[in-house]
Amino acid sequence: MPSLLPVGDPAPADGLLPRPGATDAPDASAAPESTAAPAASRDFGLYVHVPFCRVRCGYCDFNTYTATELRGVKQSDYASQAIEEMRFAAGVLDASGYPRRPASTVFFGGGTPTLLPATQLAAMLRAARDTWGLADGAEVTTEANPDSVDAAYLRTLADAGFTRVSFGMQSAVPSVLATLERTHDPLRVPEVVRWAKDAGLDVSLDLIYGTPGETLDDWQRSIDAVLANEPDHVSAYALIVEDGTKLARQIRSGQVIAPSDDLQADMYERADAAFGASGYEWYEVSNWARGASHRSRHNLGYWVGHDWWGIGPGSHSYVGSTRWWNVKHPAAFAQRIAAGESPAAGRETIGEAARELERVLLLTRVRGALRIATLAPAARREVAGLIADGLVDGPAALRGTLELTLQGRLLADAVVRRLT
Q1: Domain Radical SAM core, which positions (predicted)?
Q2: Is the peptide bond before 111 cis (omega within 30 degrees of 0)?
Q3: What is the pLDDT of residue 115?
Q4: Among 341, 314, 296, 343, which residue's Cα sits nearest to residue 50?
Q5: Which residues contact 183 (CB under 8 A, 6 or more apart)?
Q6: Which domains can be identified in the chain, with CATH numbers?
Q7: Contact by Cβ (8 Å): 241, 211
Q8: CA separation (Å) from 165 to 45, 190, 202?
Q9: Where are the beta strands (DSSP E) in 15-154?
Q10: pLDDT tens for residues 25-53?
Q11: In this structure, are residues 140 and 106 in contact, taking their beta carbons and an 8 Å threshold?
C-alpha cells in the first residue's frame, strides 16, 4: 500500500500561502542555494503525478493505484483534473504575492504516466505552458515503463515539447525483474531507447540494485546492458524495503532474504567504476550523466532548494518556506478539484533550523554544491576530520566546496550527521 502522508497543519481550502517574507523580497540577498533567497531568483519547477499502474510492484510504496483500486474514478478524466489544479495553482501563487515565473522544468512521474495516451500528456504540458510559460531551454521529462510506449508515442511526446524520457529499466536480468514484479521484457529496452533517441529525446535509464537474490554477476549484466544502450543519464538506487509493502511482508515471513548492506555497497562501487570509465560523471550520489548538460535539472531543483508545485494525488509542493501535500486517493483529489478547492491535505512551515538541516543534507549529496563557507562554524571545523577519514575530497575543499569521495558517498548519512 502507498505510504502514509505526513502529519502537519490543516491546509486552507483556498490554498493561499503565507506571503513572501523579507528574504523573498526582490532586494534581499542570500546564498544562491538557500531557499531563503528571493523568490524571483529561484527556479520554478512543476511536477505532475500520474497515479496509475497496471500492477503494483511488491517493493513499491509510491502513491499509485491499479484499475481495481480507483473507486469509480476514470483515468480518462485525469488530464482535465490536473489542468484544473494548474490553473488553481497559478491563482494561489498570484494571490499569495509570489512573482510569476516560467517553469524551468516539468516532470511527469508516477505511477506510470505513459499509461495515459500521449495526447493527454501533451495536453497537460500545453496547459502548463499556457499557465506559466516555459523558460528558454526548459527541461520536460516523463517517466515511462519500457512496455508502455512505442515509436509513435515517443514522437508525439517530442513534437509536444518533451525533451527527455526516463525509462524504468531496473534490471537486465529476468529473474531479478520477476522478484521486483516488473512486467517488461528486458530485451525491449534497447528498442525503446532507440525509438526515444530517434525522436530527439534525451534518455535516462533507472536501475535498482540489491534485490533479494540478485548477485554481483546479475548486477554486472545490468551495468553492461545500460552501457550498451549509451543513455545520456543513469540513476541507480539501492533497494529500500519499505514498511507496508509486499516485499517487507515476504522478508518478515522468511520467503525472501533481506538485501545485504555490504553487497549493495559492492554493487555501488562496481557501478560507479563502470560508469566513470565510460564517460559518465557522478553529480549526485545515485545519479550519473554524460556531461553537465544531461543532468536532471528537475531533480537538481529539489536538491538545491528551488520552488516547485506538485500536481495530482499525493503530490508534494514546496514554495518559499511552506511545504504541503495533496490528498492521496484519486477520488478524493477529483472531488476537491470539482469543488474548486485546494486538494492539499496538510502543510508545514519550515523554520530556519529545519531548513538549514535540509540544505546541508541535500547539498552534501550533490557534487560540489555545498560551499564550506556557508556551513556553521562547528560544521566547518569538522571538514578537516572528514578529509582525514577519506570521506571528503581535499582538493575540492581547498577550492571551497564539499565533495564526497567514493567512500563518503557510501557513508553520506554519517557525513551529514557530522555536519549538522
Answers
A1: 38-278
A2: yes
A3: 97
A4: 314
A5: 54, 55, 145, 147
A6: 22-350 (3.80.30.20), 353-419 (no CATH)
A7: no
A8: 17, 14, 6
A9: 44-50, 103-110, 134-144
A10: 333 333 334 445 788 889 999 999 999 99
A11: yes
